[in-house]
Design a protein that fits this description.
This protein is an alpha+beta fold. The chain has two domains: 363 residues, no CATH class; 39 residues, no CATH class. The chain is built from nine helices and 23 strands. The strands form seven sheets. It has an eight-stranded mixed β-sheet. Strands 18-19-20-22 form a four-stranded mixed β-sheet, covered by helices on one side. Strands 11-10-12 form a three-stranded antiparallel β-sheet, with no helix packed on it. Strand 19 and strand 20 form a beta hairpin. Helix 5 packs across helix 6. The protein is globular and about 65 Å long. The chain starts with 7 loop residues before the first strand and ends with a helix. This is Neutral/alkaline non-lysosomal ceramidase N-terminal domain-containing protein. It comes from Cyclobacterium jeungdonense.
Length: 454
């Protein structure tokens, strides 16, 4: 390899902490930022050779839609000359960040949203400025102890009701208050903590971009702004590596649409104080990752490339009879005083049917692959189930690979067909869960095609 092909890399983070009073989403109802526990960031990693450049951006936020992300990509392209296909922008999925998209009864905070594209572009610019001769390596470690499937088979006497259809679901998601009726979890998590490590040729750390399939922790009071365990992991990693101040630790959200760490079966002994569990998990993951560093195989001349396509997937939309029933219910709804119970959910999801009916019958799904040396990183625009992530990894066993979720947009939950048929919160038809039975398979197969032929 000649010197022109040597990898250049730079990383940066930009503070995007919302001001007090900003709307927070991630719940059925609106919360407002009342206290800042730790700062939120837009983090960027720039990789470049003489023939290609790739950019990762990971934002401490719940979800970002495709329109907002595309706006940021256009700005990045205009300022920094990077094509949209070579830019991967994702949300960590902290449920304690500023709201830039409407979710359920929580609107977007427009003042905060307007700032986001420029912030993302600025973070990329800072990473670009810091680029220097570098080397990279893929690694992974098993970390199953901090993951639990949140979907459960329940005892025969328990009847979980779908608030959209009024019919019985066959499983229950997050069975608060009925833990004694749990039989067993429905699925298994992907236990792998994958990562892309980047060092300067001088041996100084530039960045580590990790990927872990666990939803979020959520051990804070409503009204708190925090990056959750994603932020704790990043700060702990810097300490574990004894890295310089400009090191940027990043953790992306993996295939965790059905995975969290809420211990309904009381199998674990996590501390219960606010922020204690997220601190423990973040620090433990950072320590596990750090132990793998001596075994990494570094590459200072990796070939870089990207593959990008958009597939069309059909939506599940309410029919005329369902819409008429929903409109009648909405007309009676006391939404200002909605309670988080079965009756409240029925009113909330009735509103969702009315709003969803305005959507087109199909959705555009961006699918992306970054080719980095001997490894691959995939990107999907939604909350993908662990089963999907495991199937993709199995198909390319032996090749370093992980899937970044909530990337390049947000089509909501994308369960496999048989999980959609079981019911549960992730499947209840609404604006963040509306793709049809074939969507997951269509998306998965297209991503595998890009992996195979990109």
């Amino acid at each position: 390899m000649n010197d022109q092909a040597t990898l250049l890399a730079g990383a940066a983070r930009l503070d995007i902490t919302p001001p007090l009073g900003t709307l927070i989403n991630g719940d059925f109802v609106t919360h407002y930022a009342q206290t800042i526990h730790d700062p939120l960031y837009a983090k960027a990693l720039w990789l470049e050779t003489s023939s290609e450049a790739l950019v990762f951006v990971v934002v401490d936020i719940c979800v970002m839609g495709q329109e907002l992300i595309d706006e940021a990509k256009v700005l990045i392209g205009k300022i920094h000359g990077i094509a949209p296909a070579a830019i991967m922008i994702s949300s960590t999925h902290t449920h304690a960040g500023g709201s830039v998209e409407e979710v359920h009864l929580v609107p977007a905070d427009l003042a905060y949203r307007r700032k986001m594209p420029a912030w993302i572009s600025e973070a990329v610019g800072l990473a670009k400025i810091r680029k220097k001769a570098a080397k990279l390596a893929f690694g992974s470690v098993q970390a199953p102890e901090h993951q639990l499937c949140r979907r459960f088979w329940m005892q025969e006497g328990y009847i979980p009701i779908n608030p959209v259809t009024g019919k019985r679901d066959t499983i229950k998601t997050n069975p608060f208050g009925v833990e004694n009726q749990i039989l067993r979890p429905v699925a298994v998590p992907d236990p792998e903590l994958c990562f892309l490590a980047v060092q300067g040729l001088d041996g100084n750390w530039i960045s580590i971009l990790g990927n872990y399939s666990m939803h979020y922790v959520g051990d804070w009071e409503n009204g708190t702004v925090t990056a959750d365990y994603f932020g704790t992991f990043s700060e702990a990693l810097k300490k574990e590596l004894r890295a310089e101040q400009d090191f940027v630790g990043i953790l992306t959200n993996g295939t965790s649409g059905d995975i969290n760490i809420w211990d309904f079966l009381r199998e674990k002994n996590y501390p219960e104080a606010h922020f204690a569990k997220s601190k423990l998990i973040g620090e433990d993951l950072a320590a596990k990752l750090t132990e793998q560093i001596p075994d990494l195989k570094w590459d200072s001349h990796p070939k870089l490339g990207s593959s990008f396509t958009i597939v069309e997937v059909k939506r599940r939309l309410p029919d005329e009879q369902e819409l008429a029933i929903a409109r009648e219910k909405v007309a009676k709804g006391d939404y200002e005083n909605l309670q988080p119970n079965q009756e409240g959910w029925e009113y909330l999801y009735a509103r969702e049917q009315v709003l969803l009916a305005e959507y087109p019958s199909s959705a555009e799904c961006p699918i992306q692959i970054f080719h980095i040396g001997n490894g691959r990183v995939g990107a999907l625009p939604g909350e993908i189930f662990s089963e999907t992530g495991l199937m993709i990894k199995e198909a390319f066993k032996g090749t370093p690979y992980f899937t970044v979720c909530l990337a390049n947009g947000n089509l909501g939950y994308i369960p496999p067909a048989h999980e959609l048929e079981k019911g549960g919160y992730e499947t209840w038809r609404c604006r963040i869960s509306n793709l049809d039975l074939d969507a997951e398979e269509t998306i998965r197969k297209k991503l595998l095609d890009l992996l195979a032929f990109g």
